[in-house]
Design a protein that fits this description.
Length: about 210
């Protein structure tokens, strides 16, 4: 790949081999380039609501992959042909939910990397008939949530919706580090809180402490 950040490498690693692939909100098109370069798909659709960003992806892919891709200026999966696998990364969870709810189709496999409100994405995926096969946090300067899901039946507890199932089961280093930071921030702010906020904070501190055991 032209851009080899850990975040982009992680996204590419979690994407399966497939015939057709769509990168929604493709930005510069680095993941799409990686899919084609590594022979992980035969054809790519790159989409972005921004024509400027889409033009950058077109220019990148045109260098070596003429006839292997199509660029579509659109919101989400609107006007995108059916594909085997879709990536939606680098957006807020509410925007990802909106894309899923308004999609012209839902693929067999989704790889998602929400920037916030990941719990809303998890809940919608389960309601939409997806089984979450991976759901964890990784770090590349910032902390990122990553979800890999396929069509199927699944159920989550309230804690799993909030924190991610793999995070709670495996307690990876990035997730534990993130929880420690959240706990530290909460403890520092505690003395300045009102009584009602302290009650809520006590519950959150207890939850974070339990997770870190």
């Amino acid at each position: 790949m032209t851009n080899t950040t850990l975040r982009l490498k992680t996204l590419l690693l979690e994407l399966d081999n497939c015939q057709t692939f769509a990168d929604v909100g493709c930005d510069h098109g680095y993941v799409a380039e990686g899919m084609l370069k590594n022979g992980k798909c035969n054809f790519v659709y790159v989409t972005d609501v921004s024509p400027v960003c889409l033009k950058k992806a077109e220019e990148l892919l045109s260098k070596n992959y003429q006839g292997k891709f199509k660029a579509i200026a659109t919101n989400g999966l609107k006007n995108v042909p059916k594909v085997d696998q879709v990536l939606i990364a680098g957006m807020g969870g509410e925007i990802i939910c909106d894309i899923i709810l308004n999609a012209d189709f839902l693929p067999d496999r989704l790889v998602l990397q929400p920037m916030k409100n990941t719990e809303k994405v998890r809940e919608l995926l389960i309601k939409s008939g997806y089984r979450l096969i991976k759901d964890y946090t990784f770090k590349d300067v910032k902390y990122y949530d990553l979800i890999v899901c396929e069509k199927g039946i699944d159920s989550y507890t309230d804690d799993e919706l909030l924190f991610g199932r793999d995070n709670l089961r495996q307690k990876g280093e990035a997730f534990k580090e993130q929880i420690k930071r959240k706990l530290s921030v909460l403890q520092l702010a505690y003395q300045k809180m009102g009584e009602e906020d302290k009650i809520k904070a006590d519950k959150q501190i207890k939850k974070y402490t339990e997770i870190l055991k």
